[in-house]
Model the fold of this input.
Amino acid sequence: MNIEQLEQDGVTILVLNGRLETSTVPILDQAFASAFSTGARRFVWDCAALSYISSSGLRSFLQALKQLGASQGKLALAGPGHMIVEVFEISGFKSMLTILPDRPSAVSAIK
Amino acid sequence: MSQTFNRRIPNTLEALTHCMEESTAFLEGLGAPMEAGFAVNLVLEEMITNTIKYGYRDDAVHEIDIALVLEPGEVSLTITDDGEPFDPFDQPEPDTSLPAEERPIGGLGLHLVKNMMNFCSYSREDGKNIVRILKKYEH
Done:
């Protein structure tokens, strides 16, 4: 897992590249926490290159949602593949998440 | 023709991560579709993380056996451990309808495995937990 951080139209974009599992979850948690601590509240997580997620990865999504929900923040996901979406569906996360097909539409959804 | 991958690992998260990498390389090397690799990784991570964290009453090193069989259209996994008796498929279901603020963090791993795989079974034999899982995929 490596994460690239970009800024666009006041939105912080985290590009998730690789596998989100027990051993790599801290990388995402840290990237989010550091952006959040500098005041970022509107986020797009680009999931187009996210190849795997487990329940420990879902935990990062839930924590971010809770933190942003408590501080008038927003999170949109861009372009997750069908296996990632299946995990969101079965876990019941899909109804809590804002999922857009690609990065531009995710950015315009929350900017 | 079936292809097999067998590993015996100690009950540590490092060994599990390494085994997940090896099984991914094994499946990719055989040209298995991504669905098969995703399923195998999910089963290994969710089931074995659970065993490592909650399955033992002592601090000793324990062995966990993993047997993976890839056949056209399906992949099967058998995981054997000598932890406390625990049936992962006979546990209360998490409430997946709660809003984010009310969601407890955790408890989803077994739910994912149970609902994403085609067949799951548990048995206790000779003092060991044996979990068998089958996932079908398009090929």
In short: The first helix of chain A runs from residue 25 to 37. Chain A has four helices and six strands.
